[in-house]
Write a structure and sequence with these properties.
Length: 173
């Protein structure tokens, strides 16, 4: 009989939103993928500006970017977040919408954004992308990286699989 190395725990509703926020708190950079109907998909690093209380992921982007053009053609996107320092991983599939919501621009804009938008908050190229999650999957350790590594070593020495982590489907609906 084989022991399962991970506990399955699906997260729905507020538990899912809390997990999104927890992972993004530790790692704000994700791989943002578009062109999901084509192979290879187009992927680029993006900074998550916020995960709101409804579970949406928010980004800033230039209106003339390939990403915005690809979202206009097909709003399906996939986000991949990897926080290797805590062994937390998240994949989220959803739909993206693009807006010029000035309140969101004001909320998210910081000096670092001037690298992309030299005219500041009023740069006419700034857009906001909202990704509304439809489904996802997460992998997480229960005990953090150090304990996980010790369990892997112990498993290799003893030949017994030790409970390693938690994983499951994740959905805000």
């Amino acid at each position: 009989m084989t022991n399962n190395a991970s506990e399955i725990k699906n997260l729905i509703g507020q538990a899912a939103i809390d997990k999104f926020k927890e992972i993004v708190k530790h790692e704000q950079t994700c791989l943002f993928s578009t062109n999901l109907g084509n192979v290879p998909i187009t992927t680029r690093p993006m900074g998550v500006q916020k995960v709101c209380d409804q579970g949406n992921f928010w980004f800033m982007s230039a209106s003339d970017s390939d990403k915005n053009e690809e979202i206009e053609a097909d709003p399906r996107v996939q986000l991949f977040i990897s926080n290797t320092s805590n062994y937390e991983f998240l994949s989220v599939y959803g739909h993206a919408t693009i807006s010029r919501d000035q309140a969101k621009i004001d909320e998210f804009f910081s000096d670092i954004h001037k690298a992309w938008f030299p005219e500041g908050k009023d740069d006419p190229r700034i857009t906001i992308i909202k990704v509304t999650p439809e489904e996802g999957f997460y992998w997480d350790t229960k005990d953090g990286k150090l304990i996980s590594l010790l369990k892997i070593v112990a498993s290799a020495v003893t030949g017994k699989t030790l409970q390693e982590g938690v994983e499951g489907n994740i959905s805000v609906k």
